[in-house]
Amino acid sequence: MNAITIREVAALAGVSVATASRVLSGNPATSPASRSRVASAAAELDFRPNAQARALRGARTNALGLLVSDVRNPFFADLAHTVEQAAILHGYVTLLGNANERADQQDRYLDTLISRRVDGIILAPVGAGSDSIRSLIAREIPTVFVDRTIAGMDVPSVTTDGTAGIRQAVEHLAVAGHTRIGYISGPQASSTGRDRFAAFTRSVVENGLSADPALVYFGDYQAASGSAGVHALLGLREPPTALLVADSLMAVGAIASLHDRGVRLGVDLAMVAFDDIEWFALLNPALSVISHSVADMGRTAVDLLLQVIDGGTPASVVLPSELIVRASSASSASSATAGAAGTPATPPTAPTASHNSVRTH
User: Where is this region: Disordered (predicted)?
Assistant: First the structure.
C-alpha cells in the first residue's frame, strides 16, 4: 500500500500543504478551524507524520516510548523508573506518556510517540484496543505490552499471573473466619481487571464463602473508586469483615476512606491489596499485599522490546504472584464484627482453622 503523503492530507482537509505541515508539526500559527480539518483528514487517512520517513531512512533514534495507564499509580511509577534505568543500560532514552486510564489520551500519546520516531514502544494498554493501537501493530512498529494485554493482538507481553496470590489471600482471610469478603475490582475492560476478578470469584467458591454479588464493587484503578468502594461495601446491611483491593491506587483511596471513618485496619477490618508498594510496609498497621516483582516486569519488558527491535519474535513472559501477610489482615472475623459495631475489639490473634466457625451468614 502506498504511503499517505501530507499533500493528500492537505487536499482532503481543503487547506494548503504549508498549512497542513504547520498543523501537523504543532505550530500554533494556525486557526482552530484548520487544525480541526487537518486532524480529521489525518485520522481518516491514517497518516502519521515522519513514520514513513523513518521507514525510508532505516535509522534508529535510540529512544523508546513508555506509555503507562496512570502515572499516579505507585506501581506504574516504579515500573517507569525500572524501564528507564534498564533502557539507559542499553543506550536508549525513554519518552514517558500517561494515559490517565483514558483511551483518547492513550491514543494521543501513541500518535506523538510514532511521530517522534521512537524505535519501539512499551505499552500498558487501556481498554479493549483502539484504532491507534491497531495502527501501531499494523505498521509493525516494535511493541511490547506490559502488565495488561489485549485479546486477539499477537504482541509479546510481560504480565503477572495473579491467580496464586489472590487464592492465597482469600484462603488466608477464610482461615481467620471471614466469610463475607468485600472485593474492590478493577475495570472489566482491562485484562488485569477481568483476570483478578475471575480469580477472586473462583477462590470464594473454593473456600465456601459468601458469593453475594453486593460484596463486589467495580472500580477504575483510580483512588477515588477505592474510596467509593469502601463507602458502598461498608454501607451494606451486612458489610464485609475483610476487603481485598485489586490494585495499589484503589488501595490508597480505600485506606484514606477507612481512616476518615475511624475504621482500624487489622482490628475493625482486615484488608489485603494487590501490588507491593514499598511504603505499604511502613503504614501502621503494615498492609498485607499480593506481591509481584515490578522490577522483573520492567527489565523483562525492555529485554523483549530490544529483541523485537532487532527482528526477533520473543515469547511472552508471565511472572508469579504471592501473598505477603502483615498486620492489616491480622483481625479475625469476630474482632472485625466487634469493632464495626462500636464495641471494644478483641486483640487479634494468629488465625487458625477453628476461626472458620466464628461467624457465618
Answer: 335-361
